[in-house]
Amino acid sequence: MRVLQIDDNDDIRKFVGMTVSSMGHDYESADGGRKGVEMIENNQYDMVLLDMSMPEFSGIDVINDLSSKNLMTKQKIVIFSASVKKDDIIEELQGKGIHSFLPKPVDIDELIDKLTEIEDEIK
Fold first, then answer.
1. Which residues contact 36 (CB under 8 A, 6 or more apart)?
2. Quick one: CA dihedral 114, 101, 68, 12, positive or negative?
3. Of 83, 29, 30, which Cα lies nearest the Cα of 60?
4. Core vs surface per residue 29-68: b (16+ CB within 10 A) or e
């Protein structure tokens, strides 16, 4: 499985990258929303972990940009955030093609479960 993480926090990207890679998946990351959109436009990912609170180009901006380019269904997008509440963001983004929500700080077991869930879905 190929995973992209879009997150401006280096430490979180390193932690998630080690976890994803240790499970045998391919992992790439973008340190901002614009770079993440560019990577999605040019590559195929199975799963995208998307932080909502990034400076300059937020997770909402990423979702809106991908929606306008009909790229939301190209991969399973998981909202990955500490700054928003699950119920609020799911309601706000209803109908936009979001797969699910994973809270920060991430519990390693929850991350592994989410990776396994999505891997099972794409088989």
1. 4, 6, 30, 48, 50, 62
2. negative
3. 83
4. bbebbeebbebbeeeebbbbbbbbebeebbbbebbebbee
Tell me the per-residue pLDDT of 76-110, one tens digit each, with 9 for 90 and over.
999 988 876 666 666 666 667 888 889 888 899 99
Round to whole Å and give the CA distance between 76 and 55. 23
Collect all residues with Cβ–Cβ distance below 8 Å to 52 and sequence separation of at least 6.
Answer: 58, 59, 60, 79, 80, 81, 83, 84, 89
Contact 39, 57 (CB under 8 A): no
This model's pTM is above 0.85 = yes
